[in-house]
Design a protein that fits this description.
Blueprint (H helix, E strand, L loop, with lengths): L7 E5 L3 H13 L2 E6 L3 H11 L3 E3 L2 H5 L6 E4 L6 H10 L3 E4 L7 H14 L3 E3 L7 H11 L6 E9 L15 H4 L4 H17 L3 E9 L4 E5 L14 E5 L5 E8 L4 E7 L8 E8 L3 E5 L5 E5 L6 E4 L7 H6 L10 H18 L11 H20 L3 E2 L16 H4 L19
Parallel strand pairs: 1-2, 1-4, 2-3, 4-5, 5-6, 7-12
Antiparallel strand pairs: 7-13, 8-11, 8-17, 9-10, 11-12, 13-14, 14-15, 15-16
Bound molecules: alpha-L-sorbopyranose.
Amino acid sequence: MTRPSDIGTAVVGTGFIGTVHVDALRRLGVHVVGILEDTPEHGAARAAELAVPRAYATLADLLSDDGVRVVHVTSPNHLHHAQVREILAAGRHVVCEKPLAMTSDESAELVSLAASTGLVNAVNFNIRFYPLNQHLAAEIEAGALGEVRLISGHYLQDWLALETDWNWRLEPGRGGALRAVGDIGSHFLDLVTFLSGKRVLSVMADLATFIPVRREPRGPVMTFSTEHAGETVERPMTTEDAATILLRFENGARGVVAISQVSHGRKNSLRYEIDGSLAAAAWNSEQPDELWIGHRERPNELLLRNPALMNAAGRAAAGLPGGHVEGFGETFPAHFAAIYADVAAGRPSERPAYATFADGHDEMLVGDAIAESARSGRWVDVHRERAMPARAGATATAATAATGATTERPAETPAQGGPA
Ligand code: SOE
């Protein structure tokens, strides 16, 4: 029986999120054998700071290490496609930060490659793995809310609210043509699709660039950095600071979401409300241990994350007893535990609870529709007619065969009592 400590893993990129990956892997007991950075010197410095045994000079150097079975890709978005393709070709399982690629053509190729290898492939939509989101997804699948009718919410941040705020995501050549939508809108859309089990069929989107010229500082800047000292250079912006999007889901449900990285005071605020025919549920990522349950004919409820009151899916993602608040950092070990169970088995499970490349590709297709709608000012359907192989091991329905994406969840034991 393979245990996490038997699995050697390497991490590409050690910025804000890459460091979170390293920490989470260590909490699981996975052996982080090395890291790769943009230069050997930077890699050596970061390996020393993170107490990681090796700093590789190149990706080829990393892949020549037989002790590496899994590679986590947390480099800037424009590097994902080429790096993931090389990693799969070298027979390694891969966890890639979102968005999976820069374009849906790139992500389609990665889905096909992953399916042909049978390797475990995941996209880091970690927000699925707050315990109450895992719990709610299983409750909705068991019918606790009835038929999902309306999904509303937002994902708001303020770390790019000043014209002097800078990050590689502001450069389309490194972050992609969609910035706020690609970076955090993708989290919201993946999450509500996972929770509801319904995919987005069409969108009506409006994008806004409120800061048309920003001031790029000389030298590197970390994500969420607030240092603005030194000389800067004016840079015209072509990507969106914010988006307002109407959604239609495959069961007829409707949705509306606001996405923004210029909303003062909202540090990392994802909120959703899911209104069903029998009940409703709402959640706030800045108070992640609380799930609001709405009722018409009895008092509303507030479920505090508590393994004793959650279903099997919620319990599996929880690491601490009720009252010991779990947050953003804990979603990574919960997420990776699900992925590494498949790594230990040597292949993807039937219907993973984590987002696979097929799910990451589906988000790219939704992004294409959002960009097209913003250009045309019209409703645009998500174009899933592209023939995609069913994912290795996945039970692809007719709908998912088109993209290989599925929103079905692992079969759950019936809800273990307690509120939805
Ligand atoms: C920046 O918007 C960022 O780090 C995203 O890239 C992450 O995916 C999100 O979880 C937090 O904010």
